[in-house]
Design goal:
Layout lengths: L4 E5 L22 H10 L10 H14 L2 H9 L8 H9 L3 H12 L11 E5 L2 E5 L5 H23 L2 H12 L7 E6 L2 H6 L7 E11 L2 E11 L6 H17 L15 H8 L6 H14 L12 H12 L5 H9 L5 H22 L1 H8 L5 H8 L3 H13 L5
Parallel strand pairs: 3-4, 4-6
Antiparallel strand pairs: 1-5, 2-3, 5-6
């Protein structure tokens, strides 16, 4: 299979791989005081599995890698309900959770398993999970529950636009791997290496597989590092990329003469180029994956607009969408500049969804970011829409 498009979640932190830490890699083992603090922050019993476990995972890292004084402060704040957990972490550690959980942790932590042991596969909706090691049954059930909710949600979103739903359904039906999107959870270092995850948290590959001289099948594949339930956010983010990609190059929209089958990938590549629309592509993945992830609806975390405000005060200023896209996709911006770009992408897409609906935003994600496409889809040019979003961001009381 040739790679048509690769989306690297948290590629913004890949450069840290050479200088992330001088400490020895460790396995994140949650002890009693860490779990006790996570439960102290929990608001009700329903938080205990899907929320407390990932939070305890982060707490364990903070306790090991940062000072005892900071840990004691975080412990003291557990009963302070005037601020949420994410704000406490920002106040005490001076870093965003994206920097900590999405950046530092993946380069300092050992995988749950050292090598392949027992393959586990299970399907949920249009997704097939492939795990090279048998993970904890509680975690497995949480993943199944989240994916069921998630695939049902995506189907419901697409159902509002018959054309998008038709293209997705046709792409899934005619896809390699029996109409399922393979989602590989790399639970050991060898699997991560085989999947090309040395410098990236996750990769989504989309393209065509030439079955024989006259036949080609559409294919999609997601691979993500897996350290525990904390990794489900990445998993859901990448699934959005795969869904949009399937719609974008769905086979029923491509007429390929048999004699041109060898040129199929070139023809598909020339049909759409979303690489010029990085912020919408990343923003819609962030927006949908966070909106329907229990972690982000728990009340522990800031809104994306609150995080933008904090990030701007700490490190810089707002981008425009063009420079934000270049910042996120390039290595010339600072680490925190790329985090801010991702926050902005999420916020901007949230605004577009609120004002214009999912289907129009999905259509924008499939084309180049220019005035012509903005006017065609939204009836306004790009700068006008960006300025409207920025005003709501700077004046939230008026939204």
């Amino acid at each position: 299979m040739k790679k048509m498009k690769s989306t690297l979640l948290f590629s913004l932190i890949a450069y840290l791989s050479g200088c992330a830490s001088n400490s020895v890699l460790y396995k994140n083992q949650i002890n009693n005081d860490v779990e006790s603090l996570a439960k102290k922050y929990a608001k009700n019993d329903s938080d205990k599995i899907q929320i407390v476990k990932p939070i305890a995972h982060i707490f364990s890292y903070l306790k090991i890698e940062y000072s005892q004084k900071q840990w004691e402060k975080l412990s003291e704040k557990g009963s302070d309900t005037s601020k949420n957990l994410e704000t406490h972490i920002q106040d005490i550690y001076g870093k965003s959770l994206y920097r900590i959980a999405g950046g530092e942790m993946q380069f300092k932590e050992r995988y749950p398993f050292d090598a392949f042991s027992s393959l586990d596969t299970f399907s949920v909706g249009f997704v097939k999970i492939i795990v090279p090691n048998r993970i904890d049954s509680i975690e497995r059930n949480v993943i199944i529950s989240q994916l069921k909710n998630y695939t049902d949600t995506i189907n419901a979103i697409l159902s509002s636009d018959p054309e998008l739903k038709e293209r997705f359904d046709y792409g899934i039906k005619n896809m390699r791997n029996d109409g399922k999107i393979p989602l590989v959870l790399a639970t050991n270092p060898n699997q991560a290496k085989d999947e090309g995850l040395k410098r990236s948290y996750a990769i989504t590959n989309l393209g065509y597989y030439q079955k024989n001289r006259d036949t080609a099948l559409f294919t999609a594949r997601i691979a993500t590092k897996y350290f525990g339930l904390i990794s489900t956010s990445t998993m859901l983010h990448e699934l959005v990329h795969a869904v949009v990609g399937i719609i974008e190059i769905s086979p029923n929209k491509i007429a390929i003469p048999n004699t041109n089958i060898k040129n199929l990938q070139k023809i598909v590549d020339s049909m759409a180029d979303s690489s010029q629309n990085m912020m919408i592509v990343e923003g819609i993945a962030e927006s949908i994956s966070q909106k329907y992830n229990p972690m982000y609806n728990s009340g522990y975390f800031n809104t994306v607009d609150q995080n933008i405000s904090w990030q701007v005060k700490q490190y810089g200023h707002l981008h425009d969408m063009e420079s934000a896209g270049k910042c996120y996709n390039g290595w010339f911006c600072s680490f925190d500049g790329r985090i801010l770009a991702l926050y902005e992408a999420n916020s901007f897409v949230n605004y577009l969804i609120k004002e214009y609906g999912y289907s129009k935003v999905i259509r924008l994600a499939m084309c180049t970011s220019n005035d012509s496409n903005y006017i065609s889809i939204f009836g306004k040019n790009k700068n006008e829409i960006f300025d409207q979003w920025k005003r709501t961001l700077l004046n939230p009381a008026k939204t």
